[in-house]
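It would be a great kindness if you could assist me with a short task in structural biology. The full record is reproduced below for your convenience:
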Amino acid sequence: MSLAAYTERRLRAPYHVQVKFNPDLIQRESGIVPVQGEVVTKFRGDDKLSVGDEVCFAVALYHNRNEVFLGAWSWTHIDEFNEAEFLEVFLDGDPPNCGVHDYSVLLIDAPSTSPRANVPTEKELSDQLAEWEAHNNSPTLLERLQRWLCGI
């Protein structure tokens, strides 16, 4: 999935939340793994999902890079996932059973009052992509765009 497609999915996600989860309850095998946690911060969404609600969704975890298969999922190393307690995620579905809308999660140290993942407006996305294309798809500009979208 292209960077623009990931970003557009973030813009369209019904829910944007931060979730506290217990890594001890996660299976230790590579693959698409179910996660259950509590919503601790809500940035976007209707009343079907609120702070304090339990939510369930799946993430893609791996031990070795050769276990990662191609597709839309953004894979996270199991050790990194196990060291975290919180993540920021864009969800869809009918809470508490949700899907990860952009197929990726952002591991965070602690909840925050503002999103860690940058969610650009339509105009910001258009401007950033136009700048990237104007510079002949410069890798450094692409890297800057990726860091901007990931909030780093």
User: Anything to note?
Assistant: The chain has a mean pLDDT of 80. The beta strands are 15-21, 31-44, 54-62, 75-77, 86-94, 97-108. Residues 45 and 90 are 10 Å apart (CA to CA). Residues 120-152 form one domain.
